[in-house]
Design goal:
The complex is a heterodimer. Chain A is mostly helical. Chain A contains 15 helices and no strands. In chain B, the strands form four sheets. A two-stranded antiparallel ribbon of chain B has the order 1-2. Chain B has a two-stranded antiparallel sheet with strand order 3-6. Chain B is globular and about 65 Å long. The chains are: A mainly alpha, B mainly alpha.
Amino acid sequence: MAEVPLVLILVGLVAYTLLGGADFGAGLWELTARGERGSALRDHTHRAMAPVWEANHVWLIFVLTVCWTAYPQAFSSIASTLTIPLFVAGLGVILRGATYALRAGVSSPREEGVLSVTFALSSVLTPFALGAMVGGIASQRVPVGNAAGDEISSWLNPTSILTGTLAVATSAYLAAVYLAADSTRMDDREIADAFRKRAVVAGLVAGTIAIAGPLVLREDARPLFDGLTSGLGLVALVVSALAGVAALVLVAARRYEPARVVAAAAVAAIVAGWGVAQPDPILPGLSIEEAAASDATITAVLIGFAVGLLILLPSLAYLFRLVLSGRFDPAAPLAGDGEGTVELDLRDTGKGGRTIALPVSGGLLGAGAAITFIADDALRPVGVAAMLVGAVGAFVALASLDDAEPTKNGG
Amino acid sequence: MALDVLASAFGPVQQDYLLEARQMQAMSFVAHIPLVCFGVAFPAFVVFAEWRHLRTGDPVYRTLARRWSKVMLALFAVGVVTGTILSFELGLLWPGFTAAFGDVFGLGFTLEGFSFFTEAIFIAIYVYGWDRLSPRTHLLTGIPVIVSGITGSFFVIAVNAWMNSPGGFRIENGEAVDVRPWEALFGNSYLAHEIVHMYVAAYIVAGFVLAAVYAWGWLRGRRGRYERTALTIALTAAAIAAPVQLIVGDWAARVVAEEQPVKLASFEDLRETTKGAPFTIPGGPEIPDLLSLLAFHDPNATVEGLDTVPARDRPPVGIVRASFLTMVTIGTLLAALSAWYLLVRVRRRTLPSSRWFWHAAVAAGPLSLVALIAGWVTTEVGRQPWVVYDVMRTDAAVTGAGGVPVGYATLAAVYVGVLVAVVWILRRLARRPLEEDVERTAGAPSG
């Protein structure tokens, strides 16, 4: 029971790396886009990312909440020792969200340039900071306790620099592959080729870091190195390398849709490999059993999860289906015919009901308010419910009334 | 009973900047809570407008819904990041609290995560789905946005309610044991009134802030059908909610009087336990028995004074009283303005035409925000010095890390930038010509 939430955290981390990471990676590419075509690249990036940005981002929240609910002391130890990178990651998230919100309003190239730089800044800050945190944990630099570890060397060390850089590089790589696939779907060969080039470069860089990585770990974090070079860790490493090479080949061959999946698998394998190779299940000197919340809490989280997934998975599938099938693309056909509405003779709609609806709702609202005011605990829910239902009804009735022309009534 | 020392690695630490840490947290809430109001109430306005369009075929409603949906998305995006910062701060600033009680209250945030997920998914489908989905489907995708906006804040407020009225665990050897998370979150006596109080506040704030923008235009002659329709929706929502809030506030005060007498005593700076306690209007007379009447609906009721607890267990009374009075005063003024609006609307079926009303409506926007924040200050500063009421002190929860003032200053600077950016984007969106949203556009929505 105590281990189950760890699996959820790992799944959440993989999802965030694959989806949120790609979002941040896109920011780097905005910076490399210059001139006339640069604008087209940026537009494409924004269009492809915009509908899924918010959903992609939630995975991080997900990881955090499960972590502090299921392993409260571990979460607090990590957050208090790794305060600086966590804060920096937060700043990056703010910058990313702000550029996303502002994008709808930009009109001049100069404004677009400012946004691109901000977006690119967040693209480096957040993945690097979060990657460095992972490195600090994996190299056993976070002890249990309130800010018990070193505030600087816990995240500014060879392993953290490696993991941070790797996070930035894989984000950029994933972004380029996804964006190439999206532009192929939109039949934009030129943009697809631009991202193809970027994907190959980023893939080579990320691959090099991933391969050189163990050399750094050997010196700096021997237990982690041993974990990665034996057993399941080694399997993950090999899978990642094979998938990485396959993805590069697919990208070079312009087979972007399969490349998307294989590239994601390569990155997912790295994250999973770190997860299984980590010397301590959680933190040094803290076993899973000690770290885990009570069974009651973990059961509650799992129930919440099961119910949540029932809602989440179909919703997520619906969103991604709409996006990946190109329904939100500029060239997609418009839905419906004309205004797609009924009853153009609007002034008469529900007029009879309206006259009754308002006094009925108002009466319910008033009665509910009176009951709420005088009632004891037992009767109060009735009063509150009546009051709120009455309020909604009164709103619908009153806001639906056509506004009389002020000129006619004199006001 | 008090959990002064957690019998683990998370004993109290030396933190010279506890006050700065609290201010940083407060600032982060102040940035986030107005956006929550829009997250809760705005989707309902937008979907209502779209529904009116489907019912009547009137293009004004459609234009309104489209334009508002872009504003909704921009505000939601900013709310996503300010909300993320709040969750970071649970670890950055209050690791002692999270370490000791994460297993008790954390479930609320896990559930909120799903809610937030649903909201993020459907808000994207809704805003990017204009003209891409059939009108009926499009309207339906707005419903989960409304529902998840409400459930999301429900789960977060459940955590706050638990902090004010903690239960669902026992303290044994300085640790929380026998944890019953469902009971802690959803079985506490603060949840019901906090939720309703906050939802109603959300409609007041979203309604009046939105109305203030159009009221400003009204005073400058922008009184077309589009503007009148926008004003009707925003003002009607706010005007129904504001008087309701007086009743809900009364309910909340009575629960506080029962369960957190020290907080209630701070509202009046009532030093000693008094039978028939008075209430003093600042700069005005002391009205006999009024506090007893307000708190217990009985002029002769005994109200516990601040002297029931030692000085170190009292909140900063001046701040609590000032914010309580601010909230109540503004709330009452807004209810009065609302009554006038409703009277005109019901009797004459039109918007008020007096100039004073529109000046007041412009002021009501910022004032409603002030009341919202004052209300949260009342309940949260009123809870001090406890983070978990009567169980864990705030100074036992704080981080041992250095650099709190640096983080505070940095975040403050970034949030000022975000505020400027939000104002900029809203003005930009507002200046777009209406025609852009009347016609069905072939390009992707620019939102």
